Amino acid sequence: MEKNIGTDQILEWIIADKPVPYPEALATMQGRVEDIIAGRAPEAIWLLEHPPLYTAGTSAKRADLVDPDRFEVFEARRGGQYTYHGPGQRVAYAMLDLNRRGRDVRAYVGKLEDWIIRTLAEFGVTGELREGRVGVWVMRHDQPPASDAAPREDKIAAIGVRLKKWVAFHGISINLDPDLEHFNGIVPCGIKDHGVTSLVDLGLTVSMNDLDLALKRNFKLVFEASR
């Protein structure tokens, strides 16, 4: 890992320069959370990519693992169901102390959603929320409708959170340009009859650095403006 997009006194921004194996990421997050709890380290946002893999949250259903032999499957111990991670997808692990930011999990998840939506808006993408469907969605007016009754909606970002002593970790992922076919090995987040998209799939030319800078700008707007 290398710090390359900024550090301040109370929040450290870290970016990985190569894909991080999932067990290494879990161990690093858990260690950082312990340090935050003990007052040895500041909060952190860790931006990274993973090698191709599937993760199973605490609500994962075995039937939703459609192709169990495609990639290695890891127990994530976060909320949610099955998720794909791989190159071209920006994962933002947010290790934040809710003792200082407010002990309200629902409000925290709402801020993660707002963070994603504001970030996508910088690239002209309208991200939307749907009752009963975790994550952020986009309307696909450029694609055939999913049915006669409803236009097609694709998922572009996922959210998963875990808490320890009110320090949050795990976080969000946004699809920049992952191999979308890799999502076919699972029912993403247990949601059927909807697709998955990415910024590049939507016809945009966006670099990972562009996305990282937008994430940093909008994090400050969502999480710091009211503090």
Task: Explain what the structure shows.
- By secondary structure, the chain is α/β, with parallel strands linked by helices.
- Helices cover 24% and strands 28% of the residues.
- The chain is built from four helices and eleven strands; from the N terminus they run E-H-E-E-E-E-E-H-H-E-E-E-E-E-H.
- The protein has helices at 22-38, 98-101, 105-121, 208-224; strands at residues 11-15, 43-48, 53-56, 73-75, 82-85, 89-97, 128-130, 133-139, 153-164, 167-175, 195-196.
- Strands 1, 2, 6, 7, 8, 9, 10 and 11 form an eight-stranded mixed beta sheet that branches. It has a three-stranded mixed beta sheet with strand order 4-3-5, with no helix packed on it.
- Helix 1 (22-38) links the parallel strand 1 and strand 2.
- Helix 3 (105-121) crosses helix 4.
- It is globular and about 50 Å long.
- The two termini are 29 Å apart.
- The model is unreliable at 1-8 (pLDDT under 50).
